[in-house]
């Protein structure tokens, strides 16, 4: 039995009396805890091994007091609910969760190569082959999400992890939403937000196409396209779609064409994700395996 089926639990509790409700409840005793992998806003992440299956996971430990103080319990619940139902090679698996009096524990897929953000900082910018491979894999993951009526709404380098083979994993569903309707909530980080979200008008799944365009630009140039010293200036540049391509680093006109087709003010006119996968820049540069090996 694989970890996916093994690592299931049901927190509705046995009070429901059904066989499904009798599924295993995890506790800290089920895991050997290893080295710290990183520190987030609400707690720590540790390498861990599930004792029975020997499966390696990342255990995210969140402090209830901090979640409460920042009023993000609802957001966390939504994140867990959404992420635990998604199964895609480019989406980090959430196998389950448990809690004690003080903490909430998330059992996550371990991304052995860590944060993409650090890799981008180290390289300053990526080659077109690498950027195209990443953008194509994220487009596939977002097509999958949108097919399940899940909008991510917060695609940015800080939310992407890298697996052992070099494959990208969307890791943070904190701002994602399961929806059939158009939304008005303002969320995410300003640099990646599309005009309709900074202006708080209705938005839909096409917000993720915009953010993917911003990400593509950042992969190739090492900085997001609408960056400015002041928030208010970033806001203005987004709303006006003030898109400029610097002379250096040299980037192909095919890549600029793709970015220009994604960063379009009218969300209905943005290049659909399945069309993105057929764009010449993607076809010519993305690794068919979906995995970039440096
Ligand atoms: P977070 O609280 O999600 O921001 O996580 C804090 C840090 O822990 C991240 O920046 C990563 O370096 C590391 N981390 C989180 N989740 C994982 C994971 N699933 N696999 C490997 N490292 C992780």
TrEMBL record:
Q: Spell out the Gene3D superfamilies in the cross-references.
A: Phosphorylase Kinase, domain 1 (3.30.200.20), Transferase(Phosphotransferase) domain 1 (1.10.510.10)
Q: Active site annotated at which positions?
A: 154
Per UniProt, subcellular location reads as: Cytoplasm, Cytoskeleton, Spindle pole; Nucleus membrane
Q: Which GO terms describe its molecular function?
A: ATP binding; histone H3S10 kinase activity
The source's superkingdom equals Eukaryota
Q: Ranges for the Protein kinase domain?
A: 31-282
User: What's the protein name?
Assistant: Aurora kinase
Q: Could you tell me which species this protein originates from?
A: Oldenlandia corymbosa var. corymbosa
């Amino acid at each position: 039995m694989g970890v996916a089926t093994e690592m299931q639990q049901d927190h509705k509790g046995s009070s429901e009396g059904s066989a499904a409700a009798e599924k295993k409840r995890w506790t800290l005793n089920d895991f050997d805890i290893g080295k710290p992998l990183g520190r987030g806003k609400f707690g720590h992440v540790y390498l861990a091994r599930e004792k029975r299956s020997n499966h390696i996971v990342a255990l995210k430990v969140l402090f209830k007091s901090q979640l409460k103080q920042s009023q993000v319990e609802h957001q966390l619940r939504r994140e867990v609910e959404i992420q635990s139902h998604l199964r895609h090679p480019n989406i980090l698996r959430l196998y389950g969760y448990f809690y004690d009096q003080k903490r909430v524990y998330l059992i996550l897929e371990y991304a052995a190569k860590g944060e993409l953000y650090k890799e981008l900082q180290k390289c300053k910018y990526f080659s077109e082959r690498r950027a195209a491979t990443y953008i194509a894999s994220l487009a596939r993951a977002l097509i999958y999400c949108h097919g399940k009526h899940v909008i991510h709404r917060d695609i940015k380098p800080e939310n992407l992890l890298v697996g052992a083979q070099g494959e990208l994993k969307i890791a943070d569903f904190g701002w994602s939403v399961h929806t059939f309707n158009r939304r008005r909530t303002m969320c995410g980080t300003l640099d990646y937000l599309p005009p309709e979200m900074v202006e708080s008008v209705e938005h839909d799944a096409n917000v993720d196409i915009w953010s993917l365009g911003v990400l593509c630009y950042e992969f190739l140039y090492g900085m997001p396209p609408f960056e400015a010293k002041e928030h208010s200036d970033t806001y203005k540049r987004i709303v006006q779609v003030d898109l400029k391509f610097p002379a250096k680093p040299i980037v192909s006109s095919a890549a600029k064409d793709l970015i220009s087709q994604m960063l379009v003010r009218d969300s209905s006119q943005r290049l659909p994700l399945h069309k993105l996968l057929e764009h010449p820049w993607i076809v010519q540069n993305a690794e068919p395996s979906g995995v970039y090996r440096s």
